[in-house]
Amino acid sequence: MSSDASTPMDNLSHEDRSFTPDPAFARDAVAQKTLYAEADADRLAFWAEQARELLTWDTDFTQTLDWSNPPFARWFGDGKLNAAYNALDRHVEAGNGDRVAIHFEGEPGDTRTYTYAQLTEEVKKAANAFTALGVAAGDRVAVYLPMIPEAVITMLACARIGAAHSVVFGGFSADALRSRIDDAEAKLVVTADGTWRRGKPSALKPAVDAALADGRSTVETVVVVKRNGEPVDWTEGRDTWWSDTVETASADHTAEAFEAEQPLYILYTSGTTGKPKGILHTTGGYLTQAAFTHRNVFDLRPETDVYWCTADIGWVTGHSYVVYGPLVNGATQLIYEGTPDTPHQGRWWELVQKYGVTILYTAPTAIRTMMKWGEDIPGGFDLSSLRVLGSVGEPINPEAWMWYRRVIGGDRCPIVDTWWQTETGAIMISPLPGVTATKPGSAQVPLPGITADVVDDTGAPVGDGEAGYLVIREPWPSMLRNIWGDPDRFVQTYWSRFEGMYFAGDGAKKDDDGDVWLLGRVDDVMNVSGHRLSTAEIESSLVGHPAVAEAAVVGAADETTGQAVIAFVILRGSAAGEDKETMSETLRQHVGKDIGAIAKPRKVLIVPELPKTRSGKIMRRLLKDVAEGREVGDATTLADGSVMNEIAADFAK
Ligand code: 6R9
């Protein structure tokens, strides 16, 4: 085990608190205990049944899984369906056209409501508009939008015409956007003039302009949603307003059925090397598991629930649990554009009260921030509509879990701590509300039909009370199908560490009851506020600055954000005379501009030397000790043992 995983594990205390389901909740729960036995008896039959029950197929499938060429899976391979039809039209056809699909609240307080009938109409228009712009089945569309309904409409319009979307988080820089556009060879970009961040306009279009400035990308058209009304530069012949292109298009559109393995989207995520991986998801299997988990893990009642997932559509949680899961299930949901503390720190709770939110799905980093702001703030609002609370993105420490349960959930709502990844497409490990007795801090049990396990270095399962690596033994419907354009890396990254198993990259432990506890990444991927960042990517940005000779980045434990980025940098001789503080700040800004604000190091320490082994490998483990304020560990393999003393002394200043 690497030190990254063994550190939290060593001080993991035994958890005695357990919350058994309320009997009334359990009796009527959507998920019943029998699901586990059903899936265990015949896993493929179980998934085939879910696929047929939860989705509408244009052509039924005859084969559930084709695993003849592992790790390249085909699920429901000869079936045909349309993702947007499943998320929209069929609800209207079933007589639920008047049900609210989206309650939208903008940061400035403007609101919009879309019923299923209205949302279907908007998506049909967008599908016609994109087709008229030359987008065809199999093409890729880059989406660089804030959390506004047009983001959902764009994604579903792509799905409707068989084009794969590639959503790039609006906080990412022009360079990050360009590299993703190039990798996917996107034809169209959909963006907005901008959005708001804490009451101030925050631009998006300039980043698209910068990304495409050399005129040499594959992009032919940029569709621009007018959102914050700030002035934008315009490239004639390339740029067009959403209002001129989409809103004027015909609302007549018949969805064509595509093969179950039709690419649905590419979503880039940080890997252990600098280059982000384009995770590829396809249609039938992905929708099956997104819908199954959304329904069962959140105890969804589409007729009465008001569901709110606070994730941005730039992340996988926004794909599976804002767009596909909820809409395929015909749910009513809230989408909020802005920050939680604008115009006041009670904004989220005000929204829960205003819309009567019943299911809330958010991240530990948000919960810890709210804890810091104090319980009086949520205490000032009526949160009694809430009935299920979810957590995702990083391990939730028992203290935050207990606060979430007590202060937000009124000691009444079951908490589901859901473990999954961009690669897994949907929730894999989680309690089921009404079924599982929940335990603060643990994601607990693999869902029915999922064969997650914890294994040791040799791939043998660990016993209860032991730690190791999290793996998935058998293919699952929403698994990634490939890394876009890089099948070798796909095999290498996920399927080579352990024979015949999927390697998740997370350390995990089974407690005495056999429940799973997640212990964080075992590779060089950091988790900052639930967002995956690669140390290598930030290091390569730093050494890209003319003043920097070498850089090492570590993720240090942070009370609020889970981890924080800490950088250690050696300057080039030419920059040696510069003021250290000014230079640190310059480098922080440089990373922010290069990758995005979330990647900005909390601290950039300028050092004379980095700790290296004789073979020249930087010992990040030691830097992490310094960054986390620990005594520096075993440094005997260092080429120069004195280096660490100097760095530790500088850091403490
Ligand atoms: C959905 C999502 C995936 C990584 C994953 C793990 C961490 C996510 C977690 C969790 C502990 C949970 N992670 N959920 N760790 N408990 N409930 O976050 O996808 O952005 O790809 O990140 O996040 O380390 O490997 P993604």
UniProtKB/TrEMBL annotation:
EC number of this enzyme: 6.2.1.1
Keyword Nucleotide-binding attributed: yes
Binding site for Mg(2+): 543, 545, 548
UniProt keyword terms in alphabetical order: Acetylation, ATP-binding, Ligase, Magnesium, Metal-binding, Nucleotide-binding
AMP-binding enzyme C-terminal domain sequence ranges: 537-617
Enzyme class: ligase
Pfam families referenced in this protein's UniProt entry, alphabetically: ACAS_N, AMP-binding, AMP-binding_C
Region (Disordered): 1-23
Functional summary from the UniProt entry: Catalyzes the conversion of acetate into acetyl-CoA (AcCoA), an essential intermediate at the junction of anabolic and catabolic pathways. AcsA undergoes a two-step reaction. In the first half reaction, AcsA combines acetate with ATP to form acetyl-adenylate (AcAMP) intermediate. In the second half reaction, it can then transfer the acetyl group from AcAMP to the sulfhydryl group of CoA, forming the product AcCoA.
Entry similarity comment: Belongs to the ATP-dependent AMP-binding enzyme family.
PANTHER family: ACETYL-COENZYME A SYNTHETASE, ACETYL-COENZYME A SYNTHETASE 1
Name listed for the protein in its UniProt record: Acetyl-coenzyme A synthetase
Source organism per UniProt: Tersicoccus solisilvae
